[in-house]
Design goal:
The protein is of the alpha+beta class. The chain folds into three domains: about 100 residues, no CATH class; about 100 residues, DNA polymerase, domain 1; about 180 residues, Orthogonal Bundle (hpI Integrase, Chain A), CATH 1.10.443. The chain has 15 helices and ten strands. A three-stranded antiparallel sheet has the order 1-2-3. A hairpin with a 7-residue loop joins β1 and β2. α1 crosses α2 and α8 crosses α11. The protein starts with a strand and ends with a helix.
Length: about 425
C-alpha cells in the first residue's frame, strides 16, 4: 500500500518540509517539498500543523500538502504502468513539475514554451524535407509569432503550459483569448492553432509525452472566407494604358505590377525578375522562392509591350513596402475609387477590420496572384493555371479565385436572358 509522509528533519527556522513516498518493499523515495515552515508549528506525529496554529494559516499549509499528495498519486498511477523508474529522482521531478519549476534537462520534454524555443533554434539549421531547402527566415518568423502569443496567454493566465496541457480545454481557452481579448482575425487564429498542432506532433515524434486530444477534429478553428481584392481584365488594361510619362515612380511600379498581374508570381519571385530567362515568348524561372518548382510562363502581349517600351530593360526592383505603397497611388491615379467590401488594417488597433473602402486602398502585391487565377479561371483548365502559379493543391488554388457578388449576379442575369430568347 502506498504511503506519503511529510516530516521536518531540521530544527532550523524555516525548514523545508520533507516528503517521503513509499510503496511495498521496492519503492521508498525522499525529496524536499519546497514548503518552508517553522518547526514549532509542525507535528511529524500528527502529519499536520499543531492545534494551536491559527486556522487560516493551517489551512494554507494543508492545501499545499494535500495538493502534493494528490499529484504524486496521480503521476504514479500513470508512470508506474508506463514502466518508468520510481525513485527519489522521479519524486523530485514530480514535485518540480507540479510547482512548474525548470527541470534538469532544460524543460523541453515537459514544458511547451521550452520545446517551442528549442524547435525554433533547431530550425535555423533544419532542412524542409518537402522542398529540400533550409527553413526560411519567414517561416521561423511565423514560429516566433505563435510563441509570442503563447507567452502572452501564459502571462495573462499566470500558468506554465506543459506539453500534455495542449488539449481541447487549452484549445477552447486559447482561441477564446485570441478572439475576445486579442481581437485577432479568424484566419490568424487558425494559423496559430495549426502551428501549435505541428509543434505537438513533432514533440510526439521526438518521444515526448503529449495529449492525444491534439488529433481531435475539434482541434482547429474556422476562418472566415477572406475578402480579397483583384483586378479584372478591363481594369488591368486601364492601368496599362494610363499615361505616366511625367511620373517615373508610378511608371516603374505600373510596369512591374502589370508583369505580376499577367504572370501570377508571388512578390518574392517578382523581386527576382532580373534572374529570369526571357526567351522564345516564355519567361523561365529556375526555381520559385516558396516551392522551388521550375515555372515556365508565356509572355502576355502587354508584358511584351512593356519590354519593347523599355528596350528590353526590366523595371527597377523596389522593396515590398514601397511596392504596396506605390500600387495604391497608382490605382488611385487610375480612378479605382469605388467603395467595395474588404478588410483594411486599422492603424490604431493594429487589426484588420471589415468594411467598405475605396478599391485602391485594398490593392497590394497579393493582388497579382489573385487576379491571374481569377481572370483565367473557367477560361482554361485549372491544371494549366496551376502549372503556371505552381499551386500544389486544387483547394489552395481555388482560394485564390475571387469573383465579386456583382459578377455572379451579372452571369445569372445573362443566363436568364438567354433562356428567354
Amino acid at each position: 500500500m502506498a504511503n506519503i509522509k511529510f516530516n521536518l528533519i531540521s530544527k532550523k527556522n524555516p525548514s523545508n518540509l520533507n516528503v517521503r513516498f513509499y510503496h511495498g518493499k521496492d519503492i521508498d523515495c525522499n525529496t524536499q517539498s519546497n514548503i518552508l515552515i517553522d518547526p514549532k508549528l509542525w507535528s511529524n506525529k500528527m502529519q499536520s500543523l499543531k492545534p494551536a496554529v491559527d486556522s487560516k494559516i493551517k489551512q494554507r499549509y494543508l492545501d499545499k500538502v494535500n495538493n502534493i499528495k494528490e499529484y504524486i498519486i496521480m503521476t504514479f498511477n500513470d508512470d508506474f504502468f508506463d514502466g518508468k523508474t520510481i525513485d527519489s529522482k522521479w519524486l523530485k521531478d514530480t514535485i518540480k513539475e507540479l510547482q512548474k519549476r525548470p527541470g534538469d534537462n532544460g524543460d523541453v520534454s515537459t514544458y511547451f514554451l521550452a520545446y517551442i524555443k528549442k524547435y525554433i533554434e533547431d530550425s535555423k539549421t533544419r532542412i524542409n524535407l518537402k522542398t529540400g531547402k533550409q527553413i526560411s527566415p519567414a517561416t521561423i518568423s511565423k514560429y516566433k509569432s505563435t510563441k509570442k502569443k503563447i507567452e502572452e496567454f501564459e502571462r495573462i493566465n499566470k500558468i506554465r503550459l506543459r506539453l500534455t496541457d495542449i488539449n481541447l480545454k487549452f484549445h477552447k481557452e486559447f482561441t477564446t483569448y485570441l478572439k475576445l481579448e486579442g481581437n485577432y482575425a479568424n484566419s490568424l487564429i487558425r494559423k496559430n492553432v495549426s502551428q501549435i498542432k505541428s509543434f505537438i506532433r513533432e514533440a510526439k515524434i521526438e518521444g515526448f509525452k503529449t495529449n492525444p486530444e491534439i488529433e481531435s477534429s475539434k482541434f482547429t478553428f474556422k476562418a472566415n472566407e477572406a475578402i480579397d481584392t483583384y483586378l479584372n481584365v478591363e481594369e488591368i488594361t486601364q492601368l496599362f494604358e494610363l499615361d505616366l510619362n511625367n511620373n517615373p515612380r508610378l511608371d516603374n511600379v505600373r510596369d512591374l505590377f502589370i508583369i505580376g498581374l499577367w504572370t501570377g508570381l508571388r512578390i518574392s519571385d517578382l523581386k527576382r525578375i532580373h534572374d529570369f530567362h526571357f526567351s522564345n515568348n516564355r519567361i523561365i524561372i529556375a526555381g520559385t522562392e516558396k516551392t522551388d518548382d521550375t515555372a515556365e510562363i508565356p509572355i502576355h502581349p502587354q508584358v511584351k509591350a512593356i519590354l519593347k517600351k523599355r528596350n528590353n530593360e526590366l523595371p527597377r526592383i523596389i522593396s515590398d513596402q514601397k511596392f504596396n505603397l506605390y500600387v495604391k497611388d497608382l490605382c488611385e491615379e487610375a480612378g479605382f475609387t469605388d467603395k467595395i467590401l474588404g478588410s483594411l488594417l486599422n492603424k490604431e488597433t493594429k487589426r484588420k477590420e471589415k468594411g467598405y473602402f475605396e478599391k485602391y486602398k485594398l490593392i497590394s502585391s497579393h493582388t497579382c496572384r489573385r487576379s491571374f487565377a481569377t481572370n483565367h479561371y473557367g477560361k482554361i483548365d485549372d491544371k494549366t493555371i496551376m502549372a503556371i502559379t505552381t499551386h500544389r493543391s486544387h483547394a489552395q488554388f481555388l482560394s485564390y479565385v475571387k469573383t465579386t457578388q456583382k459578377e455572379h449576379l451579372e452571369k445569372l442575369e445573362t443566363y436568364w436572358a438567354g433562356q428567354n430568347q
